[in-house]
Design goal:
By secondary structure, the protein is mostly helical. The chain has 4 helices and no strands. The chain is elongated and about 40 Å long. The termini are far apart.
Length: 60
């Protein structure tokens, strides 16, 4: 399972989070399954960081 998780995570990173590409590359039956199991927030994404700071009332 570790190899499959690493593979799918790497495909998601390379495909900019496109779960359809990861689904097809990994042989999954559903893109929803890929999203639920492997789709993780990129905490280093500047858009994600800005969104959190806005919600928290902080500025960078």
């Amino acid at each position: 399972m570790t190899r499959r998780h690493s593979f799918t995570s790497a495909v998601l990173d390379a495909a900019d989070g496109n779960t359809l590409i990861a689904r097809d590359a990994g042989g999954w039956a559903s893109a929803t399954m890929v999203d639920e199991v492997y789709g993780h927030v990129d905490v280093h994404d500047p858009v994600f960081d800005a969104a959190l700071r806005t919600v928290w009332g902080e500025t960078k």
